[in-house]
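Researcher: Here's a chain I'd like modeled. Treat it as a single chain, no partners, no ligands.
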Amino acid sequence: MSELRAALSASAVPWLALTLVAYCAAVALYRRSGSHPLLIPVLTGVAMVVGVLLLSGTDYPTYRAGTQLLTLLIGPATVALAVPLFAQRQRIRALWRPLAIGLAAGCTVAIASALLLAWALGASHETLLSLAPKSATMPIALPVAERLGGLPSLTAVGVALTGIAGAVLDGPLARWVGAHDPAVRGFAAGLTAHAIGTARELQVDPTAGAFAALGMGLNGVATAVMTPLFLAALGWL
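Model: Modeled as a single isolated chain. Structure tokens:
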């Protein structure tokens, strides 16, 4: 086993191949299940990769180093979200008031609910600072938590769990409240489940994906501004 770990650590190719194969298998499973929310690719794909890492005894830094190329592609992929957003510019202009109200309400509830739940469970001051920005996308949530005095690693876990839970629940909740408009459903998914929710909405409907990208971006900015104000108002800064 030690020889296998040494061989895998020496090259990035096995980890890139593992990640791509796991993602393709997860997408195939998701489509075969009829897009079941519990089988979203980001959840099943991560489970496959984690299983291989555990079986091979590989630590996360080794895997992360081997998949650095994929990390570099996050930037261009994020910029590419501007394409569907541009196609929806007329409707975004017409809906700016309800979108602004939804953004303010969603961002406030996300920060307040995270702080209230963690505080009620007896979380430490450092944990509270780490979880406050958990509804923002990862590139924004991590530096916000770090500058507030939180633990970026704990924030990363909170962001991932929030995204997965949001992507699983947004469809059933939208049907339950009667939100059938793709713009409404997509904006809510991007606001609450950031990149993971946006990726799922892009697979379901182009309009929902565009508004999810809008919700993710706006909520990232709003969270960066409102989280310090929230914590300062509570006397936790």
